[in-house]
Design brief:
By secondary structure, the chain is mostly beta strands. It has one helix spanning 144-149, and strands at residues 3-6, 16-19, 39-44, 47-53, 63-67, 70-77, 95-102, 113-117, 120-126. The chain has one domain: Immunoglobulin-like (Sandwich). It is built from one helix and nine strands. The strands form two sheets. A five-stranded antiparallel beta sheet has the order 2-1-7-6-5, with no helix packed on it. A hairpin with a 2-residue loop joins strand 8 and strand 9.
Length: 161
């Protein structure tokens, strides 16, 4: 399963970051997290989970939309309106933030869930039933009748009795 992340406001060299094979590459990290909406993503069991840091964001400002396999997350952190305040230091970022995640087709996006708690947006998407690994039973066809049933009319069977 792969995930491609896109920050539409980042410079061209960091437009796309991939977290390849979440199930098989434990410990994979992104060297430069996206400013304003850093993310951790992983697969646990039959769910893909992403945590996006959005401290100080009003939950009502968070918008999520899904178009095809692209999940777009937008949020806004407003500048505090303090009457009579004379700012001495203003280091915390404010404004609108957008992040796009291109989801693998093996995810069941119809069952996507999102929650916001303590400044962290958690998105959980189950793996689609058709994409889950399964065991296939191989039967042995060692009787002449079974061999004959698999031959094409007019041809000799692959195995003769």
């Amino acid at each position: 399963m792969a995930l491609t992340s896109h920050d539409p406001f980042a410079n061209a060299s960091s437009l796309f970051r991939a977290l390849d094979s979440l199930a098989g590459r434990a410990g994979t990290t992104t060297a430069h997290p996206v400013a304003g909406m850093p993310m951790d993503a992983y697969r646990i069991g039959d769910n893909f989970v992403a945590h996006l840091d959005l401290p100080g964001v009003d939950p009502g400002s968070i918008e999520m939309s899904l178009e095809g396999t692209t999940l777009t997350i937008s949020a806004e952190r407003s500048v505090p309106q303090l009457e009579g305040a004379q700012w001495q230091v203003a280091e915390r970022p404010f404004g609108s933030y957008t992040r796009q995640l291109v989801l693998g087709r093996s995810l069941d996006t119809d069952r996507l869930e999102a929650s916001y708690h303590d400044g962290v947006l958690t998105v959980s998407i189950p793996v689609a039933e058709k994409a889950k690994s399964r065991t296939i039973t191989v039967t042995r066809a060692d009787t002449p009748a079974a061999v004959q049933a698999h031959t094409i009319e007019g041809e000799k069977p692959a195995v003769e009795s």
